Amino acid sequence: MDGFGTNTNVIVLAATNRADVLDKALMRAGRFDRQIYVELPNINERKEIFNVHLRPIKTAEALDLDFLAKQTPGFSGADIANVCNEAALIAARKGKKAVSKEDFMDAVDRIVGGLEKKTKIITPEERKAIAFHEAGHATVSWLLEHAAPLVKVTIVPRGQSLGAAWYLPEERQIVRTEQILDEMCAALGGRASEEVTFGKISTGALSDLEKVTKQARAMVTIYGLNDKIGNLTYYDSSGQEYNFTKPYSEQTAQLIDQEISKIIETQYQRAIQILTENKEKLTRLAHLLLEREVIFKEDLEDIFGKRQYGNDIEPTVKVNESLQQQVDATES
């Protein structure tokens, strides 16, 4: 940095989450001229971070660090520290002398989904609708090749949600068109299940609609994955937002809206077709969910059989998808 002598041994460090909005003059040679990008830890790095934070905690002998690392994709070091602390608190509340695998799973559920609200007043009709909604997600994702299959589904309210689903994602570096479309179809499976079962829909799919709208818009305007718009992107990596003008004409804006709507509607109808063809299994899954409140991968296998697609890695919780992060960063 300017103003320091050449022999004072002073090193100036700085950190930011938004390097894209910094003044370029700040980053030129002689100032902050060395830049290190720190990514979220991968599975091996998460294992090492767990190893550090578990040292002061008495754990069960059978605890598998590889399993814990697979359970936490997208978690930062601070998130992992929080999981360890929360797991220790949960074990202490249960009067345990050591923290077990189940305590860590409960900690992940609590951190990702929020506190359980079993006392929340929900009518029998609403509870049934929630069960079929979550069963719709599970059914569609289980039957699609590129969708992340659900490993655990619950209708116990957590945080702001009335139901929750845990996934088995792949930590992808690139995402292909068919993968995005399958994820969108699975996200729309909840609303499609309501329509197939009850002949009407509800407001319960708000977060699903928000997600698929962002994904469809990203396909059309950012990643160049739409035939009508072509190999163009309106993404600005400099971080300069289009506050008053758009980088395309009004006619193109209308075409973008039409293509986004077309993509979403196509995947919605696809989800309806899948659920209609598997309505009996969908109903069995929903009734099982109503009975138990929480179901797991093994319950889905009992109803649908072994999943035809996917890999053999351990179940993980789906958080902070790389695609979703990129879309959110673009729209923020």
UniProtKB/TrEMBL annotation:
Any single GO CC term annotated in Swiss-Prot or TrEMBL for this entry: membrane
Coiled coil region boundaries: 265-292
Compartments where located: Membrane
Domain AAA ATPase AAA+ lid: 63-105
GO molecular function: ATP binding; ATP hydrolysis activity; ATP-dependent peptidase activity; metal ion binding; metalloendopeptidase activity
Start and end residues of each Peptidase M41 domain: 121-303
Record's keyword terms, sorted: ATP-binding, Coiled coil, Hydrolase, Membrane, Metal-binding, Metalloprotease, Nucleotide-binding, Protease, Transmembrane, Transmembrane helix, Zinc
Signal peptide: none
Assigned protein family: In the N-terminal section; belongs to the AAA ATPase family.
Name this protein carries in UniProt: ATP-dependent zinc metalloprotease FtsH
Native organism taxonomy: Bacteria, Pseudomonadati, Bacteroidota, Flavobacteriia, Flavobacteriales
